[in-house]
Amino acid sequence: MVRSMAFLRSPDFFHCVDQHRAFLMNAVLRVQAGQPEVTSTPSGAITSSQVIAAIEKIVQGVMESLAKKEAPVLTVENRSTWTNIEFSDTVGLQMVKDSSTRKIRSDCPKSVQRFALIMKILSVIYKLVQTDTYATKRDIYYDNVQLYGSQRTVDSIITDISCMLKFPRRSLHVLSTSKGCLSGDLVFTEEDGTRVICSSSSSSVLIPSNVDGVTNMRTHARFVLIIEKDATFQRLLDDDFCGKCGPCILVTGKGVPDLNTRLFVRKLWDTFHIPIFTLVDADPHGIEIMCIYKYGSVAMSFEAHNLTVPSIAWLGLLPSDIERLYVSAQALIPLSEEDQRKLQSLQRRPYVANQPPWQRELEIMSSRKMKAEIQALSSLSPTYLTRVYLPNKLQFGGWI
After folding, report:
1. How far is Cα 174 from Cα 48, in angstroms, rounded to an integer?
2. Rounded to whole angstroms, what are the CA distances from 319 to 51, 311, 338, 360, 376?
3. At residue 162, what are phi and psi to the nearest 5 degrees?
4. How confident is the model at residue 217 (pLDDT cuts 50, 70, 90)?
5. 3-state secondary structure of 253
6. Least confident of 71-75, 198-202, 280-284, 290-294
7. pTM above the 0.70 mark?
8. pLDDT over 70 percentage in the chain
9. CA dihedral 208, 304, 353, 281 (to 10 degrees)
10. Over the Cα atoms of the chain, what is R_g?
11. What is the mean pLDDT of residues 74-100?
């Protein structure tokens, strides 16, 4: 109880809860007054009323604890352990129903600040949803830089809240700045009515911040090609890959994909159901990036059904391609100790165990203890990637 009262007097509490007393009290009053039952829209989308009701339920619990002079506690599913994950061929990595949880206590010195910041950001989300406005994660961070401390803290808390409420982040009216780009045969309308026309020229389009608001998508593309690196993506544009091997759509997340890139790839699949291929480095890092698109990640497993596309195929660069094409040893790079640990981790993943072709590719890399970047194909010819490797793969197969 001493710790609880100390929390009530702490700067964290006054900054993050007391300053939002109106939010807390309004939420409690709405719950106590009894709100009309909320139903989903015909499309199954999450309504604003559902989000508001979920936040009010949490606030009600906090206020009831305070009224009893008890230290409030928030319960969040543990997003950082494989023990909470199960693998499904049709969804990928998803959180188990009875997942383990962690307690964020207001009477614990190690978690008091996080508790207060969650309450603060809950109040921000509540106001955004109520007023039907949107904010980026950076907007929230820069609203009080000294309070939050870092952008990473804000990002982590927003993901925790999304998991706790069991609503996708876009339903919370929180957006993130996109880093992914696309090009090719694609036309769509953004939420504000802007008509976006992608092209197969050397230019690219930034993936919208609100992917859920994208409508009227049109394409004649025969396939989608996800490219790990921006440099390779630009190389394909410069060589007019879409014009020579298309029509197609090119996407890059510029390394590990952000949420918007993953959402957009899933939207492409849901809309067009055309083949989606990945082009990544033949190294453990590149393979894991491909797996994020295909099967998801542990941290976002609670939203896997909105993010993953298990039908994605591994086009290249395959470890077996390095042997088959006699890529020069000088173009290869020895696996570091970190690479080997990552490779061993991948080999233990449930989705690898279900795919013998993947197992063989990883075994080849493990036995040779070498990796190769996509640029290694330049040792065969400066234009080998765009004029030989990719056209042959797409025409004759060779993906897994």
Report:
1. 13
2. 46, 21, 18, 9, 12
3. -60, -40
4. very high
5. coil
6. 198-202
7. yes
8. 88
9. 10
10. 24
11. 81
Contacts of 123 (CB under 8 A, 6+ apart): 20, 23, 24
Helix or strand (DSSP H, E) at 86: strand 85-88
Distance spanning both ends of the chain, measured CA to CA: 59
Amino acid present at 42? P
CB 213 within 8 Å of CB 190: yes
Closest CA to 184 of 210, 223, 213, 211: 223
Q: Is the predicted pLDDT of residue 154 greater than 90, yes or no? A: yes
Give the domains, in start order, of the chain with CATH numbers: 2-175 (1.10.10.10), 181-396 (3.40.1360.10)
Token representation of residue 313: 């195929």
Q: What angle separates helix 112-130 from helix 21-33, to the nearest 10 degrees?
A: 70
Which residues contact residue 113 at a Cβ distance below 8 angstroms, ignoring those fewer than 6 apart?
A: 12
Q: Where are the extended beta strands (E) located within 198-343?
A: 205-206, 215-218, 223-227, 248-252, 276-279, 313-316, 333-334
Rounded CA separation 36/42 (Å): 18
Give yes or no: 384 in active site.
no
Q: What does the block give as tokens for 378? A: 């330049």
Catalytic residue among 142, 295, 326, 384: 142
pLDDT in tens, 92-119: 888 878 777 888 888 888 888 899 899 9
